[in-house]
Write a sequence for this structure.
């Protein structure tokens, strides 16, 4: 079963749904639109609070004019070894300045979660049993020393400009 | 050489413990092999034909005596008493147990080493000229830049799941000894008119089933932009590199399909946005890293010149070794010594624990504690006083590593081939051994002169056959091994991909074919100073085809 996890814990009653032929959003739920659907909808309405699903081959920069109307961007990891969404997330946060929820969907595994956090992903749709278990126990396999700046804010590491150190848990 | 500070020590030991946890989950069955695979690969752990293999990074090929001794100890403790130095400045152990590997990694961490990113679809161990910091023809030492790239690329959150592996090489001399034009990114250090350091940036070179020579996309990249520009390239590759076909996933295919100009344009767009980011390198940080690579304090040892002349006269074997394996150093009282890991009939690149220990001793006593690994699978002592050459030579004779064949026909590069490798179609090692024995005579080797034979046991080209003057590629045809011969390849500043000369040869006919090629060359060269590659480039393939297949033979 799929659960939504954030650093504050598992989220109940998440409204976002990826629609398929079989699955449609109910009255209380909201669909994650494809990039083209989002642009079409946004261009003919003043709707805000929208959600979009960025697929690996999408050009995330097309979202730029619509960012203020988005409540959530989901980036897809169709397989754990397809790392394009890491770059999508970096671009959304650093280049486009997107600040609302950024969710990883798809093959989200525990060993990738620390890297996803570092590129600015702050919400995770998780179905892998080990990942669910470890997240429930708050056991992330993260290491606090980083050799490069990334999206996630971190203290300057000692020594060289490119180093970063994760902030200790508050 | 670079010394870890507290930050590096903390990082590497955290990484070992992270991997220990992953190994435990794998051993307990919690982690399936397919999910474990990318995790173990990023820590240098392969699953080979007979066993796991541990590939240890030797960043830009630089080692201290203490580190080499630890490699010897790991060979003794967790393996079968030897290791294999590879064409990517790594060391491979072929027989470790998975459950021992976290301990081996912890041992490595204790001497400031690791196996990070020696495998997997990430930015691999950054390689550099093995004579860096010592070569007489050097513009600047490439290792500080390779070290900065090593740090920046380690567990990079955006670039740990690329379409395929990604290899960066840096050279600091016009004479390219790092084969930068057959790497995903090749960096050539240069100075501009104002005397500032920068890089010519090549992208999209590589070997494997689709060998390609890299394209120059930037003539002069300022030093401070190294990380932002590299990030721009790797980001474009991550987003647009092909993922539909593993064999078309390298950046060389993207460069080929997109066109170098268009790719350069995309990179420049990314770079413009990153140029003034946190990735800009402050001069003081570059200087601080560079200070680790300062030339050792080389005392004047002018007596070496006279001694050397006397020793050479007294011992022709020593004279031949100096002639072939010692190259000019920045400081005329010193030389750069190549320790050939190609004894006649030996396995290219292999060294036993005892040999590694003995070389560590020599490095400590005579070579300022520095050892290098070359992409030609040899070891180098980069700073040896001429006055100490005789003692170093005696030390190498004692461990059977004083073969005077650097750059000669028996200095063969060979991948592990079907003896170890899960990918191979054919054996490489026995072939290298047979060729080595056939041409083992010292006078004959000297007569033939510079000639690089490179052998790969499969199309992935770990043995760099595409850039061998003579390249051998093992293929499998109807269940039997067959070797394709390519001629005219070169991995230097005039990189070329060898041409297939004709139909392949059965294993027992390859060495004869090499002999035919060599004899043809000897008959064609203008004079002994014209090396094989130059002759081939002058006369083309036809005379060699005729000699191998008969005058009217068609290439198959």
């Amino acid at each position: 079963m799929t659960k939504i996890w954030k650093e504050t814990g598992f989220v109940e009653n998440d409204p976002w749904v990826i629609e398929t032929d079989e699955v449609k959003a109910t009255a209380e739920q909201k669909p994650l639109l494809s990039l083209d659907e989002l642009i079409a909808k946004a261009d003919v309405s003043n709707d805000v609070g929208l959600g979009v699903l960025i697929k690996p081959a999408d050009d995330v920069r097309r979202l730029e004019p619509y960012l203020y109307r988005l409540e959530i961007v989901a980036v897809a990891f169709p397989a754990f070894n397809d790392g394009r969404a890491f770059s999508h997330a970096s671009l959304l946060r650093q280049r486009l300045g997107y600040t609302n929820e950024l969710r990883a969907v798809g093959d989200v595994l525990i060993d990738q979660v620390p890297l996803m956090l570092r590129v600015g992903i702050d919400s995770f749709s998780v179905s892998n049993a080990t990942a669910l278990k470890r997240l429930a126990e708050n056991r992330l396999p993260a290491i606090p020393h980083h050799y490069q700046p990334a999206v996630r804010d971190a203290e300057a590491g000692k020594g060289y400009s490119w180093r970063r150190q994760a902030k200790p848990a508050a | 050489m670079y010394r870890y500070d507290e930050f590096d020590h903390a990082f590497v030991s955290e990484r070992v413990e992270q991997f220990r946890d992953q190994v435990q989950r794998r051993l307990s069955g919690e982690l399936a092999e397919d999910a474990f695979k990318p995790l173990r690969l990023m820590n240098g752990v392969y699953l080979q034909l007979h066993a796991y293999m541990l590939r240890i990074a030797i960043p830009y090929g630089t080692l201290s005596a203490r580190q080499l001794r630890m490699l010897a100890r790991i060979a003794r403790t967790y393996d079968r008493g030897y290791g294999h130095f590879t064409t990517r400045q790594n060391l491979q152990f072929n027989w470790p147990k998975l459950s021992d590997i976290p301990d081996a990694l912890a041992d490595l961490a204790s001497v400031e080493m690791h196996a990070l990113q020696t495998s997997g679809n990430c930015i691999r161990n950054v390689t550099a000229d093995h004579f860096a910091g010592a070569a007489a023809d050097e513009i600047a030492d490439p290792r500080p830049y390779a070290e900065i790239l090593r740090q920046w690329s380690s567990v990079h959150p955006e670039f740990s799941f690329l379409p395929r592996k990604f290899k960066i090489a840096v050279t600091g001399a016009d004479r390219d000894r790092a084969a930068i034009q057959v790497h995903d990114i090749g960096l050539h250090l240069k100075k501009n008119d104002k005397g500032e350091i920068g890089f010519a940036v090549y992208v999209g070179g590589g070997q494997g089933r689709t060998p390609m020579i890299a394209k120059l996309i930037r003539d002069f990249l300022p030093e401070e932009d190294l990380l932002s520009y590299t990030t721009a390239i790797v980001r474009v590759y991550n987003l647009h590199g092909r993922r539909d076909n593993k064999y078309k996933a390298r950046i060389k295919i993207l460069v080929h399909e997109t066109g170098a100009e268009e790719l350069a344009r995309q990179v420049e767009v990314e770079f413009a946005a990153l140029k003034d980011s946190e990735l800009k390198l402050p001069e003081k940080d570059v200087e601080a890293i560079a200070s680790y690579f300062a030339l050792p304090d080389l005392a004047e040892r002018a007596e070496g010149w006279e001694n050397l002349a006397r020793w050479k006269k007294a011992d022709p074997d020593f004279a031949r070794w100096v002639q072939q394996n010692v190259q000019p150093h920045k400081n005329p009282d010193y030389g750069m010594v190549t320790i050939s890991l190609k004894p006649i009939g030996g396995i290219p690149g292999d060294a036993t624990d005892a040999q590694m220990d003995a070389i560590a001793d020599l490095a400590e006593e005579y070579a300022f504690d520095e050892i290098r690994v070359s992409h030609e699978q040899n070891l180098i002592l980069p700073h040896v006083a001429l006055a100490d050459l005789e003692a170093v030579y005696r030390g190498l004779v004692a461990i059977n590593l004083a073969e005077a064949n650097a750059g000669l026909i028996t200095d063969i590069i060979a991948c592990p081939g079907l003896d170890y490798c899960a990918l191979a179609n054919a054996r490489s090692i026995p072939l290298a051994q047979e060729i080595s024995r056939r041409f083992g005579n010292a006078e004959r080797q000297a007569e033939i002169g510079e000639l690089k034979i490179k052998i790969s046991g499969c199309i992935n080209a770990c043995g760099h056959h595409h850039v061998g003057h003579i390249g051998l590629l093992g293929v499998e045809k109807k269940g039997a091994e067959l070797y394709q011969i390519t001629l005219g390849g070169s991995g230097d500043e005039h990189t070329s991909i060898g041409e297939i000369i004709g139909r392949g040869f059965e294993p027992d006919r390859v060495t004869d074919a090499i002999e035919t090629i060599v004899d043809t060359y000897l008959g064609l060269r203008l004079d002994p100073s014209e090396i094989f590659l130059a002759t081939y480039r002058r006369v083309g393939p036809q005379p060699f085809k005729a000699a191998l297949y008969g005058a009217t033979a068609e290439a198959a």
